[in-house]
Specification:
- With about 130 residues, the protein is an alpha+beta fold.
- The protein has a single domain, classed as Glutaredoxin, CATH 3.40.30.
- The chain contains seven helices and four strands, in the order E-H-E-H-H-E-E-H-H-H-H.
- A four-stranded mixed β-sheet has the order 2-1-3-4, with helices on one face.
- Helix 4 packs across helix 5.
Length: about 130
């Protein structure tokens, strides 16, 4: 299915690694709220996503991504900041994650978790077979 054949969600597409149990669990946890806010979900492995980003598979799967309706692409910790900014109860965490010192800590925490998500999936027996 091409991107043009897809509907355009109000807030954008949250793009996740469909082969990672940790990612599927995290997306599944937030899915009800994020759908209400106007986000939709798609695996990074989707044909239209690979065609849009024109990146190597390893580079594409390196981070969670958010493709906004205007075509802007956010990756990694920026995705979480963008989403937290629009949720009233998460807004204080967003503000904290933008402050000097805390910004670096937030980014480092994201990178450590993202780099080890497959290990966490195996250790916690989080299956990638349960799809969103």
């Amino acid at each position: 299915m091409s991107k043009s054949a897809l509907h355009v969600p109000k807030q954008g597409w949250l793009l996740y690694d469909d082969s990672c149990g940790f990612c599927i669990g995290a997306m599944g946890f937030g899915k009800p709220l994020l759908l209400k806010l106007g986000y939709d979900f798609a695996p990074l492995q989707s044909d239209w996503v690979r065609d849009h980003f024109k990146m190597s598979k390893s580079e594409l799967l390196n981070d969670v991504r958010l493709l906004l309706p205007d075509g802007t692409n956010l990756a990694g910790a920026y995705v979480y900041r963008h989403i937290m900014k629009g949720i009233w109860w998460a807004y204080p965490v967003y503000l904290l994650s933008c402050m000097p010192g805390f910004r670096q800590l937030f980014d480092l925490s994201y990178r450590v978790i993202a780099s080890n998500r497959q290990l966490v999936s195996r250790a916690c027996t989080l299956s990638a077979t349960k799809k969103l």
